[in-house]
Amino acid sequence: MNEKLGIIAIIVESNEESVVESINKLLHESRHIIVGRLGIPYPKRNLSLISIAVDGEQDQINALSGKLGMLDHVTVKTTLAGVL
User: Fold this and answer.
1) Where along the sequence do coiled-coil regions lie (predicted)?
2) Nearest to 23 by CA among 40, 10, 36, 7
3) Domain 3-75 carries which CATH code?
4) Would you say 5 and 80 are in contact if contact means Cβ atoms under 8 Å apart?
5) Within 10 A of 69 (CB to CB), how many other CB atoms are there?
6) 35-69 pLDDT, tens per residue?
7) Can you tell me the distance from the alpha carbon of 80 to that of 43, in angstroms, rounded to the nearest whole number?
8) Most CB within 10 Å of its CB: which of 10, 25, 39, 52?
């Protein structure tokens, strides 16, 4: 097994309902690797910041990050650490 613990940082530069629904759908589909989620709306810049704590196979985490990153108006960065 290649399990990792990590954080997926998401910047959402749109409040369009379709973007939010797409993000929530992907997160729901990957709920088995999600440990926690923190969402921060930032009206000053008209965007939202989301931090997702994940624990799972590296391929699963990378797949989720990749799918999120392909959405319009969404920027994603992922940091992983090996499970100790």
Assistant:
1) none
2) 10
3) 3.30.70.1150
4) yes
5) 14
6) 999 999 999 999 999 999 999 999 999 999 999 99
7) 29
8) 52
